[in-house]
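TEACHING EXERCISE
Course module: macromolecular assemblies
Task: Read the component lines below, then compare them to the predicted structure of the full complex.
Student: A.B.
Group: 4
Components provided:
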Amino acid sequence: MITNKDIKINIDKIYFIDDIQEAQSMLEKRLSKGSIVLKF
Amino acid sequence: MKSKMIKIYEQGPINVLKIEESEVNALSQDEVLIEHSYVGLNFIDINQRNGTYPLKTLPSIMGMEGSGIIVETGPNVTKFKVGDKVTHCMNLGSYSQFMKLNQNRVIKLNQEVDLKIAAASTLQGLTAQYLVNESFKLEQHHTALIHAAAGGVGQILCQWAKNIGAKVIGTISTKEKEDIAKQNGCDYTINYLKEDFVKKTLEFTSNNGIDVIYDSVGKDTFLKGISCLAPKGRIVSFGVSSGPIEPININKLRSFSGSVVTGGLNTHIKDSDVMQKNADIFF
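Instructor-supplied answer key:
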């Protein structure tokens, strides 16, 4: 958990942009436990 | 300059997502060029890919949220300079290394804001902001039911509601998500796969009902939710992750002065100054 003012943002997983299908699949199946982010 | 991007040529299953590279066109006068560091994933991306939400044009670059650095500005740009840290949301095309945007669609960040956090929470934070301040003005004496409490918006919404001092009930689907929801401020959780959320909500509220339901689930929860609203209670529908909602019979709300409100972030951030002000509250 990372503090951002009074709200904590929980980033569950960071994927490389090439792994977009895996990233969307995780979100679509509601397997994520927080935000999902892609990086370049 | 070439930009890597994720494009779809048709709506459908996950394999319609294609990785491509193409040239970045010249900026128009009011545009900035952002080099994305991070891109946020949201359920709207899934709905746009699979066809639940229509897309105006195809092929289309996917993605509705990103953060990065301004690398070029058009001649009429006054709000930004090269090197500024920025974030944005609700602009289709963020699954791209470089993105051109009108300056009025971009949010300036303070230098200390982590770009990962910005990409993970711009859309969700601005959504939570309008839900608790505009769709239903949540106050300390209220009880709120938050569906998908362990999801992206859900976690922020639970914390925000708890910070206001409201009583918070969250629906979840697993023990692990129950722990997350409680860490984020839920007073009570309901596992909707094992328990009837209407029955449990009435139990948690001593049969008084709930003041507001923040519903991003849609088909599976929306109509059922009417049965556990308090007098003057409201359902705020801001997503349809389980599918579109069946038509509602307004007479079901009349006897207790209940109300239904829909929420769409675009409406709430149409004005550039309002969008920046609301983002400043959050960041």
